[in-house]
Design goal:
This protein has 137 residues and is mainly alpha-helical. Helix content is 45%, strand content 9%. The protein has helices spanning 5-15, 19-31, 78-91, 96-100, 118-136; strands at 46-47, 56-60, 68-72. Helix 2 crosses helix 3.
Length: 137
């Protein structure tokens, strides 16, 4: 699987811990999701309705060698925030080409299938799909 180095490191982190620790790690990622920059308002962001909790994303690909990703999710949605944070930490600042090459099911390598519902995992897939769609436009 071809992943940008930051995302590969995250996948390795999840692979190195037990199932119970995976949930704790996901919670830690949820707390690390950065706030939106002042110039970006949630109302101007794209909703991702496939997520079980409200999630909004923004893809700035003006510089195709350094794509900027922003996510907004409420604090009471730690799973959704955790997934958004994983994508932010793993893909923000990467090239459009590197992001487009990430397999759509890379999240299966996180090993969360036994801990998180398939519906929630599809939310992460939907986030990546929408990011890729923006990059192809």
């Amino acid at each position: 699987m071809t992943l940008p180095a930051p995302l590969a490191d995250i996948v390795d982190d999840f692979a190195s811990v037990s199932d119970q620790e995976k949930l704790q790690l996901l919670l830690e990622f949820s707390r690390e999701l950065p706030e939106l920059p002042d110039e970006l308002q949630e109302a101007a962001m794209e909703p991702v309705p496939e997520c079980q909790s409200p999630l909004f994303l923004s893809v700035d690909a003006a510089d195709r060698d350094h794509v900027r990703l922003h996510f907004s999710a409420p604090p009471e949605a730690p799973t959704t925030r955790g997934f958004a944070s994983i994508l932010h930490q793993g893909l923000d600042g990467q090239s459009a080409q590197a992001i487009l090459e990430v397999p759509g099911d890379f999240y299966s390598a996180l090993g969360l299938a036994d801990a998180v519902s398939p519906l929630r995992l599809r939310g992460m897939s939907a986030m990546l799909t929408r990011i890729k769609r923006h990059l192809r436009e």
